[in-house]
Amino acid sequence: MSTITLTAPQARRLPAARSQASPALRLTRRGKIVVLTLAFVAIALLALVLGPSVVATGDAGAPEQTTSVTLMAGQTLWQVAADANPHGDIRDTVDDIVRLNSLSSASAVQPGSTIAVPVYER
User: Fold this and answer.
1) What is the spatial distance between Cα 67 and Cα 16, in angstroms, rounded to a whole number?
2) Disulfide engineering: 93 pairs with which of 6, 57, 64, 85, CB 3.0-4.6 Å?
3) Helix or strand or coil: residue 103?
4) Looking at the domain assignment, is residue 55 inside a domain?
5) How many domains does the chain have?
């Protein structure tokens, strides 16, 4: 008589790297371009929706009452602002003069220049 030995099949083992968590997501070059493009579109939409909004109307703004002052040698915008608005904040008055005359800075004026100065209530 002959004997036959039967053994149970052994289970296949997975490699150690696969048995743990799933591998990290890897994007192809085309996938990276798509993700980058979607990010730019999202940022552009947010900037459009949340950005500053300005409304132009057909109505004319109220003109600001001004007077003209010719600067003498050694005279500064600070002195002009103090004369124009003695009870107000001189820094704000200098800023108003710079804005009104489209100056780059308060030191951009030269002696002999004629500038517009806002008229303030006294």
Assistant:
1) 86
2) 85
3) coil
4) no
5) 1
The one-letter code for the residue type at 44 is A
Whether 85 maps to a domain, the answer reads: yes
Does some domain include residue 59? no
Q: Model-level pTM?
A: 0.50
Instruction: Give one word for 97, left, alpha or beta, with left for phi > 0 and alpha for psi -120 to 50.
Output: alpha
pLDDT of residue 15: 60
The CA distance from 5 to 112, in Å, is: 117
Q: Which of 60, 66, 69 shows the shortest CA–CA distance to 100?
A: 66
Taking the C-alpha atoms of residue 121 and residue 18, their distance in angstroms, rounded to an integer, is 81
State whether residue 22 is helix, strand or coil.
coil
Amino acid at 73: A
Domain of 98, in residue numbers: 66-118
